[in-house]
Structure formats: C-alpha cells, structure tokens
Specification:
The chain is built from 14 helices and nine strands. The longest helix has 27 residues. Helix 9 links the parallel strand 2 and strand 3. Helices cover 38% and strands 11% of the residues. The strands form two sheets. Strands 3-2-1-7-8-9 form a six-stranded parallel β-sheet, sandwiched between helices. A three-stranded antiparallel β-sheet has the order 5-4-6.
Length: 424
C-alpha cells in the first residue's frame, strides 16, 4: 500500500509541473502541491505506525484501560482509522485539488511478456497499436552528418569554439544574438535544410505514419529532416522550433524558408523588409517559450498514447525529457539509443517511487532499452514488423530524389501542409 501512495505522489508531481498552464496558476499550484504532499506524508507516517503495530495502535503505551470505550478516542488519531479510511482520506484530498486522474493503474500488471525488441513487436501486433508517440533527439541525425550538441570533441558546442564566443551556448541566447547575430547565421548556413539527407530513423517514423500507427512525433531537432523525410506537419511537434519559418524580432512579420535561405547563403544578416529588425528563424533560444503547439498537444497525445518510442535522445533537457512520464503507467516505453538515458540513478534508483525509465527495476515489464546505432535499431524493428525491405527501398529512392534535386540546384524540400512555405 505504501508503494501505491508513493506512486500517487510521483504521478501528482509529474502532472503538476508540466505544463504549468494546467488547473491553477503556477504559484498557487506549487503551494497547493506542497501542502498536499505534506498532509499525505503525515498520513503515510501514521499509516506505517498502524501497520507495524500488532494491535493496530500507534503506540502500545497509549492503550486505553479495559473499561475505556474506543469511541472516546479522537477521530483524527491513526488508531481510530482503518487502512481503507486512510486510503480514502488521501484520495479525497487529491481529488479535491481537481486531480481525479492522479490514481495510477496497478503496478502489478504485466505489460510486456518480454522486455526486448521482440516483446515490443509482439505488443504492437497483439494490441493493435494505433497511437504510437515517438520522441527524437540529435542521435537520429548524426549519421546524416549533423553533429549533436554534447559529444566531446565532435559535438556542436565543441565546434562552436571557433566563433570566439563567451561560451558555446551564447550563440543560442537571444541577448547575444541581438548584439551579434553573425555567428548564428554562419552556423545556420552550415546546418540549413537541404544540406543533409534524412536517415533511416526519419523514414522509419514516416513508415509508422503510413501504416496508421503514428499519433505524433515530438522532436528536439531543429534540422527539419522530419519534414524533408515527408512526415506531415499535422503529425509533427517541433519542440525546439524550426528553421522553416522566421519572424522579425521587432514587428513580428513572418518570413518563409526560401526568403531566409537567399540571404543567409549570401552571407547576409536577414533584415526585415517592413522595419530594420533582424529576422530570426523560429527555433527556440534559451529563455524563450516552447511553441504553443507543444503545450497544446501533450495532454491529448499522451492520454491516447499506447506505445512510446524514444530515439537518439539523452533526455537531459526539460521539459522535453519529462514527457516520458506522461503516458499511462501501463504504456510500454522503448528507448533506441547508444546508451541508457532517462533512467533513475543513485538514491532514486534504490527507492520504490516510480519515475523515469525503469529498465533495471525489479519486476519491470514496461521499459525496454535497445542500445546501439539508431539507424540499426530502427531497421531491426522494421524487420521484425515486416517492413524491413520497404524501409530500405524508401531510403534508397528518397535519397536518389534528393541527390537529383541538389544536382538541379533546387532545395530538396518535401511538400508540406505548412502555409509558411508559401511566405515570401
């Protein structure tokens, strides 16, 4: 029972802070959460004392005399409440905060019969998954030639040292950009959409869509390779923004990819045609809010999610990383990455409080880690699903099209329903 209450608290924590737009304003929410956790912990302590005492009392020295009526005891004392009463009391407090959905599903349910890639494939086939959510980080684009951010010696932050920045991250700080936008646009020219081809990972996500399994794809990447791979805009949430559109920092006039590319490739700073403001691509800089589409989608998507697949992400940057705790506790989670990520370490790993990916937790039947190259992992998963040859052929044909487009000096941009492509 203690595990059940601990799971309730974890669910409450993970659902109270993401997103902060829920239920009550942020400050009131934090205060309310603190009070609730304090009250519930107090109840847990009393419950634990009752459970440990053979006669159901919190303290043997407080036993009433033989002729003392038990009705004279205070109703607030743990000794006067049954275990069921404690449970009902705590649940009532959670529900009074509007968190009726805070009670998690039974943690004893077997979710996957086998915590391996084969177990995930069997789950997909047997359960008829139709609402798969995918999350992706820089690891799915490194084989395309795009560096990730943090790898020692080869990561993007390491390579930015040549721009003589106060710190590598400064290139993505709005205050620095306003003073000196040149380093950012030099980098943007190197990473601009059209210079790289999508990987097998990107096309695997497209296959999920074409086979009717993909509910939504969430990406941390700003390289737009999902769009180039043909994943429709309505299936895509670019959590850290996109280079496909841009806005003037002063008047907010909107510009499209073609307009920005012409100027960036001439080594010019894109300047608004309406005012003298700088036009910044719509990628999220440090200190900026994530796109509204991110916050508007997560509640609905993760409530429906019947399988979560995480591809090539270190799961170190929030709020993106915290999305892994949003699906139902009965929803399997598959990580395809070079190393384990998003799992609990240290004291948290020794506790019974759930949270994060739990590959090594005793009795885990939910979380699977496939470690290795992301392209290899996606190809293997496609093979097991019967899509292996289709994926290989898609990669071959799409890359041929992109090579042909490049030869013709046409930007290799996949059609999109995003009206921003028409902005000039």
């Amino acid at each position: 029972m203690l595990e059940k209450y601990a799971s309730l608290f974890n669910h409450l924590l993970s659902h109270s802070f993401l997103p902060l737009k829920r239920k009550v304003p942020c400050i009131l929410q934090v205060f309310t959460l603190t009070v609730c956790v304090f009250l519930c912990c107090q109840q847990l302590l009393q419950l634990h004392l009752v459970k440990m005492s053979p006669n159901g009392k919190t303290n043997g020295a407080d036993k009433p005399e033989q002729n003392e009526s038990p009705q004279t005891e205070s109703p607030d004392m743990a000794s006067g409440l049954s275990l069921a009463s404690h449970e009902a009391h705590i649940l009532e407090k959670l529900q009074s905060l509007g968190l009726d959905d805070a009670a998690p599903e039974s943690v004893s349910s077997t979710i996957l019969n086998d915590t391996s890639l084969d177990g995930v494939v069997a789950y997909i086939n047997n359960k008829g998954c139709k609402n798969v959510v995918t999350m992706a980080g820089a690891g799915i684009s490194t084989s395309a030639g795009i560096p990730d951010f943090r790898s020692a010696g080869t990561g993007l932050y390491h390579n930015l040292q040549k721009y003589d920045l106060p710190c590598p991250e400064a290139i993505f700080h709005l205050s620095f950009f306003r003073k000196n936008p040149k380093p950012f646009f030099v980098l943007a020219k190197e990473l601009f959409p059209g210079a790289f081809k999508p990987t097998a990972c990107h096309y695997f996500i497209r296959l999920l869509h074409e086979n009717g399994l993909l509910l939504r794809h969430y990406t941390q990447n700003i390289d737009a390779l999902e769009r180039v791979a043909g994943i429709p805009d309505e299936k895509l949430v670019e959590a850290h923004g996109t280079c496909y559109t841009g806005h003037c920092l002063e008047c907010r006039k909107k510009y499209g990819l073609k307009w920005m590319k012409e100027r960036i490739f001439k080594d010019e700073i894109p300047i608004c045609e309406k005012c003298p403001g700088i036009v910044k691509p719509d990628i999220v800089f440090f200190g900026e809010n994530l796109p509204a589409k991110f916050y508007n989608s997560i509640d609905v998507d993760f409530e429906k999610c019947d399988l979560l697949i995480i591809l090539g992400s270190s799961l170190e940057v929030n709020p993106f990383a915290s999305l892994i705790d949003m699906p139902s506790s009965l929803t399997p989670r598959l990580l395809i990455n070079r190393e384990k990520a998003g799992h609990r370490t240290g004291a948290m790993a020794l506790s019974d409080i759930p949270g994060g990916l739990e590959f090594d937790r005793k009795g885990n039947t939910r979380d699977v880690a496939w470690l290795g190259d992301c392209n290899d992992g996606c190809q293997l998963l496609a093979d097991r699903l019967g899509w292996g040859e289709e994926l290989k052929e898609m990669v071959r044909k799409e890359h041929e099209k992109l090579d042909k487009s490049k030869t013709q000096e046409t930007a290799p941009i996949a059609p999109s329903s995003d009206e921003a492509l028409d902005c000039q």
